[in-house]
Amino acid sequence: QVQLVESGGGLVQAGDSLRLSCKASGRSVSSEGVTWYRQAPGKERVFVAVIGHLGTTLYGDSVKGRFTISRDNATNTVYLQMNNLKPEDAAIYYCSLIMYWGQGTQVTVSS
């Protein structure tokens, strides 16, 4: 059974940084792509970033140049480094592997 556990969210000020973690079990993050999504209150869940099984990365337009997705195969964890956070980045962030989802981690950004 595949399980994903996100962590690292919190309350920060605009301009601050956070690093989110997505710890996987039951499947290797290096064998499948892992995607980060976010969902703000009252809005649809949207794509943030993905890292493919070959390590290729892709970002949503709103986070390009500020967010970096990476993975640690030894710990089976995917990270999302978020720099220069903006109030509009506030959302619940979810990671996804194949059809599995984590429970999400809340990011709040004060202006």
Give the structure's gist in a few sentences.
By secondary structure, the protein is mostly beta strands. It has strands spanning 3-7, 10-13, 18-25, 34-39, 46-51, 57-59, 67-72, 77-82, 91-97, 100-101, 105-110. It is globular, with a radius of gyration of 13 Å.
Your description of this structure?
With 111 residues, the chain is an all-beta fold. Helices cover 0% and strands 53% of the residues. It is built from no helices and eleven strands. Strands 2, 4, 5, 6, 9, 10 and 11 form a seven-stranded mixed sheet that branches. The protein has a four-stranded antiparallel sheet with strand order 1-3-8-7, with no helix packed on it.
Topology of this protein?
Blueprint: E1 3-7, E2 10-13, E3 18-25, E4 34-39, E5 46-51, E6 57-59, E7 67-72, E8 77-82, E9 91-97, E10 100-101, E11 105-110
Parallel strand pairs: 2-11
Antiparallel strand pairs: 1-3, 3-8, 4-5, 4-9, 5-6, 7-8, 9-10, 9-11
Radius of gyration: 13 Å
- Biggest sheet character: 7 strands, mixed
Structural class: mainly beta
Low-pLDDT stretches are: none
Strand % is over 45%
Mean pLDDT level: 97
Distance between the termini: 40 Å
DSSP helical segment count: 0
Order of helices and strands: EEEEEEEEEEE
Shape: globular
Helix coverage percent: under 10%
Give the tally of β-strands: 11
